[in-house]
Amino acid sequence: AAVLKKYHERGAAAPDDLVSPLAAALQRFPLRVETGEAAFDDAVNGALFHVEQSVGEKGLQKAVFTWSDGAGRAASKTFTLPPAGYEVSFAASLVEGGKALPEAPVAWGPSLGVLTREQAKNRYFQQEYAAVFRGGAYKKVDREKVGAEKPESVNRLSGDVAWAGICTNYFAALFIPDKPMAEAKVTTAALSAELKALHNSDSDLTLRVPYPGSGRLFLGPKEHDRLKAMGGEFHRILDWGSILGPICTVLLWGLRRLYAVTRNYGVSIALLTLAIKLLFYPLTQRSMVKMKEMGEAMKKLKPQVDRIKSKYKKMPKDMATRSRMNEEMMALYQREGINPMAQMTGCLPMLLQMPIFFALFTLLPKAIELRGAYFFGWIKDLSVADPYYITPMVMGVTMILSTKMTTTADMEGVQKVMLWLMPVMFTWFCLWAPAGLTVYWLVNNLLTMGQQYLINRQVAARQEAAQRERKSTPKGASKPSH
Prior knowledge:
Blueprint: E1 3-8, E2 15-17, H1 21-26, E3 32-33, H2 38-45, E4 50-55, E5 61-68, E6 74-81, E7 87-96, E8 99-100, E9 104-108, H3 117-121, E10 129-134, E11 137-142, E12 152-167, E13 171-177, E14 181-190, H4 193-196, E15 203-211, E16 214-221, H5 224-230, H6 245-262, H7 265-279, H8 281-313, H9 319-335, H10 342-351, H11 354-363, H12 390-406, H13 413-430, H14 435-472
Antiparallel strand pairs: 1-2, 3-9, 4-5, 5-6, 6-7, 7-8, 7-16, 9-15, 10-11, 10-12, 12-13, 12-14, 13-16, 14-15
Helix pairs in contact: 6-7, 6-11, 7-14, 8-9, 8-10, 8-14, 12-13, 12-14
């Protein structure tokens, strides 16, 4: 067992164990020996080891497992556990035919921890994947497609492996040797119906490494600060990506600082969303006002635009006709002082926010801080979907209302269909999204609606003022009196 005392699966009394139930069912336990020689491997993995335990300086607990058959075969595994933390010193040695092997091929797997049925259905939850750092580059290895025709798939990554391990959405088991390893072997194996009852997936993952004698094991949560402090690019297992990674780091920092005050991650997500809105307010305000004004101007010109389109509708549909129609419409826009491309330029400031949005969509489903985090009422875990689909439905309604506030009468065809299709798509996605992600999008919609309401009033007031000014302005020069 590899029990994490501070972490519990929602609704479970016992703490999390990184050893999968598949291990006992298959009799293939983590850190077993896999040299490839069946007789030797069976002897070592089925042996009764002698155990010596001791407590050293600074509370270090040491456990030494040794075995020998008296016929030239022997094995030893040494674990040194610190008083706190998740890094365990690990040493392993093998003797075969009276000679010490240069390395100890050991494996982690099958799987990592318990995979619940809810997690298996959650498309935002990452099931087992291998993380390998070799030649100064990080490589993520996902499970491959296996089944009846192909029950097993093997992926070998050779050369200068600094560290390697198996990860899930929230936890990791990493081999961190003192010297680089020659390779990392990742095996995906199909599961039978009986094994699927223990592990709610079609397959499992196993990692085998030629461990060079001594080093460390990391068996714990994927906490950003802890992994970053370890160095060695271990934070890459968070799977944020090289581009969004720095943004995710800042957002997580802000989220945790807000949590230190609110003690509620749901409230912290709402406040973080508000802070982002305020940060980008100058840019979004200008762009939204510009788009609204241009939309209103285009709406007033719609009857004239429709007449031009109707005029050319009965003409031959060739390039010359299309060109004349476009020239006439551009002349109309020029007379009225309207630049139809202004609506597109008004979108540019909003595009600057997209990295923030993508970073939040990357961060929130993977942040272990949200695992089991209570928000309010029925939302008892921000890392899983709303069990009653209330927040996704409310989020969808806010998107529809927001769309109504921004649409103009000149929209038609594909443009209008896509605009109304977006609320349906986002609602569908959020039905199974972690509640923390849905809360972010809902709060963002509410804030956008409030901003749009103020903008609509502002634009309407400007138009009324302009209309009053036009009415009060004389249309021509006054005639001299006689």
